[in-house]
Design brief:
alpha+beta; 6 helices; 22 strands
Protein backbone atom coordinates (compact mmCIF):
# COMPACT_ATOMS: atom_id res chain seq x y z
CA UNK A 1 0.00 0.00 0.00
CA UNK A 2 1.15 3.55 -0.69
CA UNK A 3 1.70 5.77 2.29
CA UNK A 4 0.10 9.19 2.62
CA UNK A 5 3.48 10.92 2.11
CA UNK A 6 4.09 8.97 -1.09
CA UNK A 7 0.68 9.90 -2.43
CA UNK A 8 1.35 13.58 -1.85
CA UNK A 9 4.36 13.45 -4.19
CA UNK A 10 2.45 12.24 -7.24
CA UNK A 11 1.01 14.19 -10.16
CA UNK A 12 -2.74 14.67 -10.20
CA UNK A 13 -3.26 12.23 -13.06
CA UNK A 14 -2.29 9.30 -10.89
CA UNK A 15 -3.82 10.26 -7.56
CA UNK A 16 -6.11 7.51 -6.33
CA UNK A 17 -9.68 8.61 -6.22
CA UNK A 18 -9.08 11.72 -8.32
CA UNK A 19 -8.04 10.13 -11.61
CA UNK A 20 -9.55 7.08 -13.30
CA UNK A 21 -7.79 3.85 -12.54
CA UNK A 22 -5.79 2.33 -15.37
CA UNK A 23 -6.25 -1.30 -16.25
CA UNK A 24 -3.40 -3.45 -17.43
CA UNK A 25 -4.21 -2.94 -21.11
CA UNK A 26 -5.25 0.72 -20.91
CA UNK A 27 -3.24 3.49 -22.52
CA UNK A 28 -1.15 5.79 -20.35
CA UNK A 29 -2.83 9.15 -19.56
CA UNK A 30 -0.80 11.99 -21.14
CA UNK A 31 -1.77 14.87 -18.83
CA UNK A 32 0.16 15.94 -15.73
CA UNK A 33 -0.41 18.48 -12.96
CA UNK A 34 0.65 22.01 -13.76
CA UNK A 35 2.07 23.31 -10.46
CA UNK A 36 5.68 22.77 -9.42
CA UNK A 37 7.57 22.95 -6.19
CA UNK A 38 11.34 23.35 -6.04
CA UNK A 39 12.75 20.05 -7.34
CA UNK A 40 15.43 18.18 -5.46
CA UNK A 41 18.67 17.05 -7.05
CA UNK A 42 19.53 13.50 -8.02
CA UNK A 43 23.22 12.83 -7.86
CA UNK A 44 23.29 11.44 -11.40
CA UNK A 45 20.74 13.84 -12.89
CA UNK A 46 21.14 17.39 -14.19
CA UNK A 47 20.28 20.19 -11.84
CA UNK A 48 17.03 21.87 -13.03
CA UNK A 49 16.99 25.61 -13.82
CA UNK A 50 16.33 27.79 -10.78
CA UNK A 51 13.05 29.52 -10.29
CA UNK A 52 14.17 33.13 -9.92
CA UNK A 53 10.99 34.20 -8.12
CA UNK A 54 11.72 34.92 -4.50
CA UNK A 55 10.17 32.44 -2.13
CA UNK A 56 10.36 31.36 1.43
CA UNK A 57 11.90 27.99 2.20
CA UNK A 58 9.66 24.97 2.09
CA UNK A 59 10.94 22.06 4.08
CA UNK A 60 9.04 19.49 2.09
CA UNK A 61 9.30 21.06 -1.35
CA UNK A 62 9.65 17.63 -2.90
CA UNK A 63 6.17 16.60 -1.72
CA UNK A 64 4.47 17.93 -4.89
CA UNK A 65 5.68 16.50 -8.19
CA UNK A 66 4.45 18.64 -11.07
CA UNK A 67 5.06 20.03 -14.47
CA UNK A 68 8.73 21.03 -14.09
CA UNK A 69 9.83 17.77 -12.48
CA UNK A 70 7.60 15.60 -14.63
CA UNK A 71 8.51 17.46 -17.79
CA UNK A 72 12.17 17.05 -16.93
CA UNK A 73 11.73 13.34 -16.39
CA UNK A 74 9.71 13.05 -19.59
CA UNK A 75 12.49 14.83 -21.43
CA UNK A 76 15.07 12.48 -20.00
CA UNK A 77 13.05 9.48 -21.02
CA UNK A 78 12.17 10.86 -24.44
CA UNK A 79 15.78 11.65 -25.30
CA UNK A 80 17.18 8.48 -23.82
CA UNK A 81 19.28 10.40 -21.29
CA UNK A 82 17.94 8.48 -18.32
CA UNK A 83 18.29 5.11 -19.99
CA UNK A 84 21.64 5.89 -21.58
CA UNK A 85 20.36 5.01 -25.10
CA UNK A 86 20.34 7.24 -28.17
CA UNK A 87 16.56 7.46 -28.00
CA UNK A 88 13.42 5.80 -26.70
CA UNK A 89 12.66 2.24 -27.63
CA UNK A 90 9.58 2.15 -29.87
CA UNK A 91 7.31 -0.82 -29.38
CA UNK A 92 5.99 -2.38 -32.56
CA UNK A 93 2.97 -3.99 -30.93
CA UNK A 94 0.11 -1.51 -30.43
CA UNK A 95 -0.72 -2.96 -27.00
CA UNK A 96 2.80 -2.36 -25.60
CA UNK A 97 4.24 0.97 -24.37
CA UNK A 98 5.20 3.42 -27.10
CA UNK A 99 8.48 4.34 -25.38
CA UNK A 100 10.52 2.79 -22.60
CA UNK A 101 13.23 3.50 -20.08
CA UNK A 102 15.10 1.31 -17.63
CA UNK A 103 15.11 1.14 -13.85
CA UNK A 104 18.40 2.61 -12.63
CA UNK A 105 20.31 2.19 -9.38
CA UNK A 106 21.53 5.54 -8.02
CA UNK A 107 21.74 7.99 -5.15
CA UNK A 108 18.80 10.39 -4.81
CA UNK A 109 19.26 13.65 -2.93
CA UNK A 110 16.41 15.95 -2.05
CA UNK A 111 17.15 19.63 -1.51
CA UNK A 112 15.74 22.84 -0.11
CA UNK A 113 16.33 26.15 -1.85
CA UNK A 114 16.36 29.39 0.13
CA UNK A 115 16.98 33.02 -0.67
CA UNK A 116 20.49 34.27 -0.03
CA UNK A 117 22.40 37.50 -0.42
CA UNK A 118 25.89 37.77 -1.85
CA UNK A 119 27.91 40.59 -0.37
CA UNK A 120 30.57 41.41 2.20
CA UNK A 121 28.46 40.74 5.27
CA UNK A 122 26.88 43.06 7.78
CA UNK A 123 28.89 46.29 8.32
CA UNK A 124 30.24 47.07 11.78
CA UNK A 125 31.06 50.51 13.13
CA UNK A 126 34.44 51.93 14.05
CA UNK A 127 34.12 54.40 16.92
CA UNK A 128 36.68 57.03 17.78
CA UNK A 129 38.71 56.37 20.93
CA UNK A 130 40.79 59.23 22.29
CA UNK A 131 44.53 58.76 22.46
CA UNK A 132 45.53 62.31 23.29
CA UNK A 133 48.13 62.58 26.08
CA UNK A 134 45.77 64.49 28.38
CA UNK A 135 42.45 63.08 27.28
CA UNK A 136 41.14 61.92 30.65
CA UNK A 137 39.34 58.62 30.37
CA UNK A 138 40.60 56.61 27.44
CA UNK A 139 37.99 55.99 24.78
CA UNK A 140 35.69 58.75 25.96
CA UNK A 141 33.99 60.60 23.13
CA UNK A 142 32.02 63.78 22.75
CA UNK A 143 32.72 67.15 24.36
CA UNK A 144 35.82 65.92 26.15
CA UNK A 145 37.76 65.54 22.91
CA UNK A 146 36.61 68.90 21.57
CA UNK A 147 38.02 70.55 24.70
CA UNK A 148 41.38 68.91 23.99
CA UNK A 149 41.40 70.12 20.39
CA UNK A 150 40.81 66.69 18.80
CA UNK A 151 39.80 66.97 15.14
CA UNK A 152 39.57 64.44 12.32
CA UNK A 153 42.17 65.32 9.70
CA UNK A 154 41.91 62.35 7.32
CA UNK A 155 39.62 59.42 6.51
CA UNK A 156 39.88 56.69 3.85
CA UNK A 157 37.54 56.45 0.88
CA UNK A 158 34.44 54.29 0.72
CA UNK A 159 35.36 50.99 -0.87
CA UNK A 160 39.00 51.23 0.20
CA UNK A 161 40.69 48.12 1.59
CA UNK A 162 42.66 48.54 4.81
CA UNK A 163 45.36 46.10 5.90
CA UNK A 164 47.55 45.66 8.95
CA UNK A 165 49.36 48.89 9.74
CA UNK A 166 47.23 51.08 7.46
CA UNK A 167 45.70 54.21 8.97
CA UNK A 168 41.99 53.81 9.68
CA UNK A 169 41.73 57.57 10.27
CA UNK A 170 43.86 60.45 11.53
CA UNK A 171 43.26 62.78 14.43
CA UNK A 172 45.39 65.97 14.47
CA UNK A 173 47.49 64.16 11.82
CA UNK A 174 48.19 61.30 14.21
CA UNK A 175 47.56 57.96 12.48
CA UNK A 176 45.25 55.47 14.17
CA UNK A 177 46.27 52.16 12.53
CA UNK A 178 44.61 48.80 12.01
CA UNK A 179 46.07 45.83 13.86
CA UNK A 180 45.00 42.20 13.50
CA UNK A 181 43.64 40.32 16.49
CA UNK A 182 40.60 39.45 18.56
CA UNK A 183 41.20 41.55 21.69
CA UNK A 184 40.63 45.31 21.53
CA UNK A 185 42.92 47.53 23.57
CA UNK A 186 40.96 47.90 26.80
CA UNK A 187 43.80 48.97 29.14
CA UNK A 188 47.12 50.77 29.07
CA UNK A 189 49.98 48.44 28.12
CA UNK A 190 53.37 49.31 29.55
CA UNK A 191 56.51 47.57 30.87
CA UNK A 192 55.40 44.92 33.35
CA UNK A 193 52.03 44.28 31.67
CA UNK A 194 51.25 40.64 30.92
CA UNK A 195 48.48 38.93 28.97
CA UNK A 196 47.10 37.89 25.62
CA UNK A 197 46.69 41.50 24.53
CA UNK A 198 50.45 41.99 25.01
CA UNK A 199 51.17 38.97 22.79
CA UNK A 200 48.76 40.31 20.15
CA UNK A 201 50.50 43.71 20.15
CA UNK A 202 53.97 42.16 19.89
CA UNK A 203 52.88 39.84 17.05
CA UNK A 204 51.59 42.83 15.09
CA UNK A 205 54.75 44.85 15.73
CA UNK A 206 56.88 41.92 14.55
CA UNK A 207 54.79 41.49 11.39
CA UNK A 208 55.18 45.22 10.69
CA UNK A 209 58.97 44.88 10.86
CA UNK A 210 59.79 46.04 14.39
CA UNK A 211 62.15 43.96 16.53
CA UNK A 212 64.14 43.88 19.78
CA UNK A 213 61.64 41.80 21.76
CA UNK A 214 60.20 38.30 21.99
CA UNK A 215 56.59 37.65 20.98
CA UNK A 216 55.16 36.48 24.30
CA UNK A 217 52.81 37.58 27.04
CA UNK A 218 55.29 39.98 28.71
CA UNK A 219 55.62 43.69 27.92
CA UNK A 220 59.36 44.32 28.37
CA UNK A 221 61.66 47.28 27.89
CA UNK A 222 62.41 45.88 24.43
CA UNK A 223 58.69 46.00 23.66
CA UNK A 224 58.56 49.61 24.85
CA UNK A 225 61.44 50.63 22.55
CA UNK A 226 59.72 48.98 19.58
CA UNK A 227 56.50 50.80 20.48
CA UNK A 228 58.36 54.14 20.52
CA UNK A 229 59.63 53.47 16.97
CA UNK A 230 56.11 52.55 15.91
CA UNK A 231 54.68 55.72 17.49
CA UNK A 232 57.26 57.85 15.70
CA UNK A 233 56.12 56.36 12.36
CA UNK A 234 52.50 57.12 13.31
CA UNK A 235 53.35 60.76 14.06
CA UNK A 236 52.28 60.13 17.65
CA UNK A 237 53.94 61.04 20.93
CA UNK A 238 56.69 58.51 21.71
CA UNK A 239 55.59 57.29 25.11
CA UNK A 240 56.48 53.61 24.83
CA UNK A 241 53.03 52.72 26.15
CA UNK A 242 49.87 51.75 24.30
CA UNK A 243 46.44 52.93 25.43
CA UNK A 244 42.89 52.23 24.28
CA UNK A 245 42.26 54.20 21.12
CA UNK A 246 45.88 54.07 19.90
CA UNK A 247 44.88 51.46 17.29
CA UNK A 248 41.79 49.70 15.94
CA UNK A 249 41.76 45.90 16.19
CA UNK A 250 40.01 43.61 13.69
CA UNK A 251 40.33 39.96 12.69
CA UNK A 252 41.81 40.79 9.28
CA UNK A 253 41.76 43.21 6.37
CA UNK A 254 38.69 45.41 6.11
CA UNK A 255 36.69 47.10 3.36
CA UNK A 256 35.29 50.56 4.10
CA UNK A 257 31.55 50.69 3.41
CA UNK A 258 30.41 54.09 4.69
CA UNK A 259 32.03 57.19 6.20
CA UNK A 260 30.36 58.67 9.28
CA UNK A 261 32.60 61.73 9.61
CA UNK A 262 34.86 63.93 7.48
CA UNK A 263 38.09 65.91 7.81
CA UNK A 264 37.60 68.96 9.96
CA UNK A 265 34.93 67.41 12.16
CA UNK A 266 35.34 67.16 15.91
CA UNK A 267 36.73 63.71 16.72
CA UNK A 268 34.08 61.66 18.43
CA UNK A 269 31.44 59.02 17.85
CA UNK A 270 31.37 56.79 14.77
CA UNK A 271 34.08 57.31 12.20
CA UNK A 272 33.10 54.76 9.57
CA UNK A 273 31.60 51.32 9.00
CA UNK A 274 33.40 48.42 7.39
CA UNK A 275 33.16 44.74 6.48
CA UNK A 276 35.52 41.93 5.63
CA UNK A 277 37.14 41.99 2.20
CA UNK A 278 35.95 38.58 0.97
CA UNK A 279 32.48 38.12 -0.46
CA UNK A 280 30.21 35.84 1.53
CA UNK A 281 26.64 34.60 1.28
CA UNK A 282 24.14 35.39 4.02
CA UNK A 283 20.71 33.81 4.43
CA UNK A 284 17.86 33.82 6.92
CA UNK A 285 16.72 30.26 7.56
CA UNK A 286 13.47 29.23 9.16
CA UNK A 287 14.47 27.95 12.63
CA UNK A 288 12.50 24.73 12.15
CA UNK A 289 14.96 23.86 9.38
CA UNK A 290 18.03 24.35 11.51
CA UNK A 291 18.87 20.69 10.98
CA UNK A 292 19.73 21.46 7.34
CA UNK A 293 22.89 23.36 8.28
CA UNK A 294 25.83 22.90 10.58
CA UNK A 295 29.24 24.54 10.67
CA UNK A 296 31.43 23.03 7.99
CA UNK A 297 28.56 21.67 5.87
CA UNK A 298 28.54 22.45 2.14
CA UNK A 299 25.85 24.14 0.06
CA UNK A 300 25.49 25.08 -3.58
CA UNK A 301 25.08 28.77 -4.41
CA UNK A 302 23.35 29.63 -7.69
CA UNK A 303 24.30 33.06 -9.06
CA UNK A 304 21.99 35.34 -11.09
CA UNK A 305 23.52 34.10 -14.38
CA UNK A 306 22.84 30.47 -13.46
CA UNK A 307 26.44 29.61 -12.60
CA UNK A 308 27.01 27.73 -9.34
CA UNK A 309 29.71 27.81 -6.70
CA UNK A 310 30.23 25.79 -3.54
CA UNK A 311 29.90 27.50 -0.17
CA UNK A 312 30.74 26.33 3.35
CA UNK A 313 28.71 27.19 6.43
CA UNK A 314 30.99 29.18 8.74
CA UNK A 315 28.59 30.89 11.13
CA UNK A 316 25.14 30.10 12.52
CA UNK A 317 23.57 32.80 14.64
CA UNK A 318 20.64 32.78 17.02
CA UNK A 319 17.03 32.99 15.81
CA UNK A 320 15.82 36.57 15.59
CA UNK A 321 13.01 38.60 14.08
CA UNK A 322 13.97 39.47 10.52
CA UNK A 323 11.39 42.22 10.49
CA UNK A 324 13.01 43.99 13.44
CA UNK A 325 14.02 47.49 12.54
CA UNK A 326 11.89 47.45 9.41
CA UNK A 327 9.80 50.31 10.75
CA UNK A 328 6.56 48.48 10.12
CA UNK A 329 3.66 49.76 12.14
CA UNK A 330 0.59 47.78 13.10
CA UNK A 331 0.77 44.03 13.11
CA UNK A 332 4.48 43.94 13.92
CA UNK A 333 4.02 42.11 17.20
CA UNK A 334 1.67 39.50 15.78
CA UNK A 335 4.19 38.64 13.07
CA UNK A 336 7.14 38.30 15.40
CA UNK A 337 6.97 34.55 15.95
CA UNK A 338 6.30 33.81 12.28
CA UNK A 339 9.07 36.08 11.05
CA UNK A 340 11.82 34.71 13.30
CA UNK A 341 14.76 33.49 11.24
CA UNK A 342 18.13 31.87 11.81
CA UNK A 343 21.04 33.91 10.34
CA UNK A 344 23.56 31.74 8.50
CA UNK A 345 26.75 32.72 6.67
CA UNK A 346 28.60 30.79 4.00
CA UNK A 347 32.21 31.26 2.98
CA UNK A 348 33.05 31.03 -0.72
CA UNK A 349 36.52 29.56 -0.99
CA UNK A 350 36.88 30.15 -4.74
CA UNK A 351 36.21 33.88 -4.97
CA UNK A 352 37.04 33.93 -8.70
CA UNK A 353 33.96 31.83 -9.46
CA UNK A 354 31.81 34.68 -8.14
CA UNK A 355 32.85 36.70 -11.17
CA UNK A 356 32.30 40.44 -10.91
CA UNK A 357 29.28 40.21 -8.61
CA UNK A 358 29.82 42.33 -5.52
CA UNK A 359 26.22 42.27 -4.26
CA UNK A 360 23.41 40.12 -5.62
CA UNK A 361 20.43 37.95 -4.69
CA UNK A 362 21.30 34.27 -4.99
CA UNK A 363 19.75 30.86 -4.40
CA UNK A 364 21.26 28.64 -1.72
CA UNK A 365 20.60 24.94 -2.30
CA UNK A 366 20.81 22.87 0.86
CA UNK A 367 20.86 19.07 0.98
CA UNK A 368 17.78 17.90 2.92
CA UNK A 369 17.87 14.12 2.55
CA UNK A 370 19.77 11.50 0.62
CA UNK A 371 19.16 7.87 -0.28
CA UNK A 372 21.99 5.75 -1.60
CA UNK A 373 21.82 2.65 -3.74
CA UNK A 374 18.11 2.85 -4.58
CA UNK A 375 16.19 1.86 -7.71
CA UNK A 376 14.55 4.80 -9.49
CA UNK A 377 12.46 5.64 -12.54
CA UNK A 378 11.03 8.86 -13.98
CA UNK A 379 7.89 9.90 -12.12
CA UNK A 380 5.79 9.77 -15.28
CA UNK A 381 6.46 6.02 -15.55
CA UNK A 382 4.00 5.49 -12.66
CA UNK A 383 0.45 4.37 -13.45
CA UNK A 384 -2.56 4.31 -11.15
CA UNK A 385 -3.98 0.89 -10.32
CA UNK A 386 -7.66 0.09 -9.92
CA UNK A 387 -8.52 0.41 -6.25
CA UNK A 388 -5.42 2.45 -5.43
CA UNK A 389 -1.69 2.08 -5.54
CA UNK A 390 0.76 2.36 -8.41
CA UNK A 391 2.40 0.16 -10.98
CA UNK A 392 4.97 0.18 -13.77
CA UNK A 393 4.12 -0.98 -17.28
CA UNK A 394 6.56 -3.72 -18.29
CA UNK A 395 6.63 -4.92 -21.94
CA UNK A 396 6.06 -8.62 -22.51
CA UNK A 397 7.69 -10.88 -25.09
CA UNK A 398 4.44 -11.16 -26.99
CA UNK A 399 4.33 -7.46 -27.78
CA UNK A 400 1.91 -6.52 -25.01
CA UNK A 401 2.59 -5.34 -21.47
CA UNK A 402 1.86 -6.19 -17.86
CA UNK A 403 1.43 -4.06 -14.75
CA UNK A 404 4.02 -4.56 -12.00
CA UNK A 405 2.90 -3.11 -8.61
CA UNK A 406 5.46 -0.90 -6.87
CA UNK A 407 5.96 0.78 -3.52
CA UNK A 408 7.18 4.38 -3.67
CA UNK A 409 10.05 5.90 -1.75
CA UNK A 410 11.90 9.17 -2.15
CA UNK A 411 11.18 11.72 -4.91
CA UNK A 412 13.98 13.84 -6.39
CA UNK A 413 14.33 15.84 -9.61
CA UNK A 414 11.52 14.13 -11.47
CA UNK A 415 12.62 10.68 -10.32
CA UNK A 416 11.08 8.37 -7.76
CA UNK A 417 12.45 5.50 -5.74
CA UNK A 418 10.59 2.23 -6.47
CA UNK A 419 10.68 -1.17 -4.83
CA UNK A 420 8.64 -4.34 -4.77
CA UNK A 421 8.49 -7.92 -5.93
CA UNK A 422 9.77 -8.23 -9.49
CA UNK A 423 11.41 -4.79 -9.51
CA UNK A 424 15.10 -4.98 -10.39
CA UNK A 425 17.89 -2.89 -11.86
CA UNK A 426 17.91 -2.70 -15.67
CA UNK A 427 14.26 -3.68 -16.00
CA UNK A 428 12.50 -2.04 -18.96
CA UNK A 429 9.31 -0.06 -18.23
CA UNK A 430 7.06 2.15 -20.26
CA UNK A 431 6.98 5.96 -20.26
CA UNK A 432 4.95 8.45 -22.32
CA UNK A 433 6.43 9.02 -25.75
Amino acid sequence: MTTQDETEHLPAVVQPGTAPAVSDDAERAPDVAEKAAEPAVAEEGDRPPGDRNRRRIRRRAVILVVAIAVAAAAGLAATGTFSGDDGPTAQAAPDGPTATTTIRRMTLTSTETVDGTLGHGKPTAVTYGSAAPASGQAGQSGGGQAANGEFVTWVPGEGDTLKRGDAVYRVNERKVPLLYGSIPFYRTLEPGSEGKDVRMLERNLADLGYDGFDVDDEYTSGTARAVEEWQDDLNAEETGTVRPGDAVVASGARRVTELKTSPGAVAGGEVLTWTGTERIVSMDLDPQHEDLVKEGSKATVRLPDGATVVGEVTDIGSPGNDSAGSGSGSGGESKGADEATLPVQLKIEDQKKLGRYQAASVDVILAADSRRDVLAVPVNALMARPGGGYALEAPTTGGGSRMVPVELGMFANGLVEVKGSGIKEGMTVGVPK
